[in-house]
Amino acid sequence: MPGILTVSVMGILWRWMFDNQIGLVNAARALMTGAGPIPWLSTEGLAWIPIVVGTVWWTVGFNMTLYLAALSNVSQSLYEAASLDGATSGQQFRYITWPMLGPITLFVTVTTALASFQLFGQSLVITNGGPSRSTQSVTQYITEEAFTNSQYSSAAAMGFVFGLFMLVLTAAQFRIMARDVQAGEQK
């Protein structure tokens, strides 16, 4: 269900939940422990918590849907044959389930890593890049450089370098994980 929400709705929801004074997290904490509120959104070390937790909550449903679809494509005859051969459930997972989920794991890992580097809306809506720019993402900085500071050439150069970095990271992930996927298919 969270996957259908826009980044703005997700950000407002998590900003409200982690609000320094009236947030749901602080209210629940006060009820359980009687302690005062924690300034989640205005403390440099803590400001990432609502962004990370909210983003994981927002995106995990899509990834689980992909895994469920991949699991439904694993033939039950493989598990039956393994169980007749005396394989334990751990061995069935290691030698059947995990190798069969290799391609989807590659896809989920690459898309999640790319989405993480493109973090923009979450930190913009939840903390507006603060406190003291501690939650400002690279894409927020590039956007600010271009459209607030009117430094289009440096923003274009930063965007190009950032794109190259993501391309190299993606190629490395494909190389590492594709080797594992191919090894799983050969077994």
Helix and strand run: HHHHHHHHH
Give the overall average pLDDT. 90
> Number of helical segments?
9
Which percent range describes the beta-strand content? under 5%
Number of strand elements: 0
Helix content: over 70%
Main β sheet profile: none
Dominant shape = flat
The end-to-end span amounts to 37 Å
Please mark out the parts with pLDDT under 50 across 5 or more consecutive residues, or reply none.
none
Backbone structural class:
mainly alpha
Please tell me how large the radius of gyration is: 22 Å
Explain what the structure shows.
The protein has 187 residues and is mainly α. It has helices at 7-17, 24-33, 48-72, 76-84, 89-100, 102-117, 121-126, 138-148, 152-186.
Q: Quick recap of the structure?
A:
With 187 residues, this protein is an all-alpha fold. The protein has nine helices and no strands.
List keywords for this structure.
mainly alpha; 9 helices; single chain; 187 residues; flat
Indicate the topology.
Layout: H1 7-17, H2 24-33, H3 48-72, H4 76-84, H5 89-100, H6 102-117, H7 121-126, H8 138-148, H9 152-186
Helix pairs in contact: 1-3, 5-9, 6-9, 8-9
